[in-house]
Amino acid sequence: MSVNSKYRTLKKESEGLYKEKGSKFIGIAVPCYNEEDAKNFLEEWKKRHHQARHLCYAYKFGVDGDKFRANDDGEPNNSAGQPILGQIDSFELTNVLIGVVRYYGGTKLGVGGLINAYRTGAKEAIQNGEIVELEVYDWIDILFGYEDMPQVMNLLKKYNLTLSNNVFEESCKLTTFLDVNLAAGIKEELLKFDSLELIEKGIY
Q: What share of the chain has pLDDT > 70, as a percent?
């Protein structure tokens, strides 16, 4: 069974602005791959906009966008986070975090007004950024003994694999990434070596 080999995300951080009845809604969109990184981005944005009333957000992670969350940060239920998430879906993005900061202008907008404002703030941030389509890879660490090094290196060369984080000490450790639709066969060949151990780092 084949796996999605590409996904759409943002190239780098971008911002958008929407104003309504004195309130300012600043959308911030950034490529992001996990909850820990999302937490760090949100903390940074809170410091940057420490006078803002709300920082509502949504994220979606994974090749298939199967991990997601929407947060209203004190706004009425589903009036902020869900509209932001809706824009992520509308642009068919994943591995992305979008926050919308609200500076309150003194006039209540109502739930309908809030939905429109948070949706538009997110949309502006996405449209002001650059959407890119990236290849998906299956990342692995390869651990093996020196006795298997020539054969392992020949196999990696056979598949023209790119290596990083190379460690050659008492044992050897290499990090590489595999085409998701060839990964199973390559791993099967690698595991034929007696000293070899594979550590799965994830598909992204």
A: 98
Give the span between the Cα atoms of 37 and 48, in whole angstroms: 17
User: Residue 3: is its pLDDT beyond 80?
Assistant: no
Give the chain's domain count: 2
Separation CA 78–CA 31 (nearest Å): 23
For strands 67-71 and 54-61, give the pairing.
antiparallel
Compute CA 31 distance to the chain's CA centroid, rounded to the nearest angstrom.
5
- 110 domain-assigned: yes
Write down which residue in 116, 134, 152 finishes a domain: 134
Taking residue 51's Cβ as centre, other Cβ atoms within 10 Å add up to 7
Are the C-beta atoms of 20 and 107 separated by less than 8 Å?
Answer: no
Q: Maximum Cα–Cα distance for the chain, whole Å? A: 73
Query: DSSP string of 128-181?
Result: TS-EEEEE-EEEEEEEE-GGGHHHHHHHHHHTT--EEEEEESSSEEEEEEEETT
Give Cα 1 distance to the centre of its chain: 24
One domain for residues 28 and 79: yes
The structure tokens listed for 4 are 């999605």
pTM value is 0.80
Torsion sign over Cα 32, 34, 37, 42: positive
Based on the domain organization, do 122 and 152 belong to the same domain?
no
